[in-house]
Amino acid sequence: MNKTINQKAWYFVIPVFVLVAFNAAIPLMTVVNYSFQETFGNNVFAWEGTRWFKQILLSDRFHAALGRQFAFTFIILLIQIPLGIAIALTMPKKGWGVPVCLILMSMPLLIPWNVVGAMWNIFALPDIGFLGHTLNSVGFDYNFTQQPGDAWFTTILMDVWHWTSLVVLLSYAGLNSIQPAYYQAAEIDGASRWATFRYIELPKMKKVLTLAILLRFMDSFMIYTEPFVLTGGGPGNTTAFLSIDLVKMALGQFDLGPAAAMSLIYFFIVLLVCWVFYNLMMKNEAQS
Amino acid sequence: MKKYKWLVPTLYIIFLMLPIYWLINMSFKTTTEIINTYSLWPQKFTIENYVKIFTDSTWYMGYVNSITYTVFNTVISVAAALPAAYAFSRYKFLGDKHLFFWLLTNRMAPPAVFALPFFQFYSSVNLFDTHIAVALSHCLFNIPLAVWILEGFMSAVPKELDETAYVDGYSFGRFFFKIFVPTIAAGIGITMFFCFMFSWVELLLAKTLTATAAKPIAATMTRTASTSGYELGLLAAAGTLTIIPGAIVIYFVKNYIAKGFAMGRV
Questions:
Q1: pLDDT of residue A244
Q2: Among A69, A136, A235, B211, who pairs with A242 as Cys (CB 3.0-4.6 Å)?
Q3: Are B225 and B112 found together in one domain?
Q4: Residues B190 and B250 in one domain
Q5: Residues 148..187 of B with a Cβ closer than 8 Å to A: which?
């Protein structure tokens, strides 16, 4: 749409600007402030320069948490995106099935995150949980509170359960926006099912899929509550993702300086990846 | 192959429902039964857990608190985002693109980064442990989202609508509320749905910013789980009840969800 230049539009933006700045800028400055100082309690601070940043960037603990975080995000994207597309493609397009699917599939999205964690904890317990009990009775030695592999499996399964529906809803909306004429044309040309998907459906879903990947990347990179309730980061530190490690450092050990430096590095990584995605998205939009 | 197409969504829905069923199943059992026997449905059906929640004020007030700040947040977010989204969709102004990206970066900020500074900040302005503090802090991620979704919906409305209204002698205010807002009603519904959803499910900030007076239900649950042993039946009943508000909201917006996703950006 061609937009008119109007500087007075700023008045419309002011409430949003004030509310978000109030919430973002002031706390963020506190974090920046801490990241350069050493605290001795009682509001006594000493200038430390970039010491905390160097310490965090060189620490094995941070590298390990970052590695776990990237592995987790990569795995869940690899499962959720194709699975979400597959489910959206096979969902009914009209009739009573549509509202039933939409309502039931949206359910996990609206459950508070710690309830999701608690629910999966109860569900996966080896002795009294359905998942744990079933796996053990068919011969697997499954115990997510003791074995790192099982803890990872359970955390990933929980995230797939929790968030695949978001990808489904987005893909479904993208598919719905395709006019029937496209399918008729494909049929006349004798296009195979794969060709129809590759050349008609996938390009039409490009926009919503970029968005789905962006949202899933952001949220899985910030994941805290669900694994915290499910595994508490354990066994050991094997499922301590970035946020869990950060909160442990900031509120548990009260190492404000290093925790603040870590926050900023963490935020910067998220920002960098999202900036790349955002630009890709805007480029797509400009083309279409 | 076409004949078996329904299998995929059906299996997926069964997978989604299993943990929820297990939670509901547990909520109708006594804690002793949960720990001692494994059964697919309650052997001794009891509603004791629910009775306890509805008669103990520390429990049911948790729900009231959660709903209160969620509603506050939804109203604030949508009210502030409406004019801003209109500005972004209709006008070019100094720094508009940077401002838009800056807003989005706040949606990307990990709440764990902000937990401690928020606690200090809201304590220093005497808002600690109030509903409004939680509602305001959730604006951090809900306002950017609301602006983003609403902007998508508004951009889909042709600009001719605005121009015709002005030619007909409408003032801006009358046009905005009498014509524009009803036109994008579906978009506002979807935006409210998302604001409600993200405020309802968030716990880290809500827990950090409250102590007793505004404590959310989700936080009440974690406390009970850690202090009085592990009252699984009670925990399961409380968890089951947290699903209900979400289910009600979905029921109301079900017709908009698919359409809304397609029209707006989210």
A1: 87
A2: A69
A3: yes
A4: yes
A5: 155, 159
